[in-house]
Design brief:
CATH topology of the largest domain: 2,3-Dihydroxybiphenyl 1,2-Dioxygenase, domain 1
Shape: globular
Organism: Podila verticillata NRRL 6337
Low-confidence stretches: none
Protein name: VOC domain-containing protein
Strand content: 25-35%
CATH class of the largest domain: Alpha Beta
Pfam family, one: Glyoxalase
Radius of gyration: 20 Å
CATH architecture of the largest domain: Roll
Number of domains: 2
InterPro entries: Glyas_Bleomycin-R_OHBP_Dase, Glyas_Fos-R_dOase_dom, VOC_core
Largest sheet: 5 strands, mixed
Amino acid sequence: MSSTISKPTAPSSFKGIHHLKLASSSIQKTHDFYTKVFPFTPLPAHDHFTPDHKVFAKIISHPLTNLLVEIRYDPTRAASQKGWDPVTWAVGTRKDLEEWIQWLDSWNIKHSRILLGVKAWVLACEDPDGRHVRLYVTDEEHEWTDHPDQDPYWLGDIQADPAA
């Protein structure tokens, strides 16, 4: 006797990103970085606590997009992400990146120069855990290039996937 097992219908609800999570070795330092240097707003009513009421995560939001970011205490994971750039934030124009350079300099935050990306420009800086935070231009483009700037520190090494 043969039976045919059919796949269920794909779920109908998938609304996109609920929140991002950033591992941190110091919740307060990372929280201050994103709420003072970047335009995030603290949401203390949504902070997370252990059963004995000690904070293990703080929540911040980007009001323009309603994006939530959880800053979670996890020093081991934070250390493993040093030099990694898990999120690239959008800015309008190349001129905006020049303003960001002045702003980052005023906070004494280490950053790259403005770099040529594959279709626009990018600037990178470091958060308190050494994670690279990129700002990418979205309202202007240059001609597509397969020869973007190379900067192993800020952009990492480019490696082709041998299986691709």
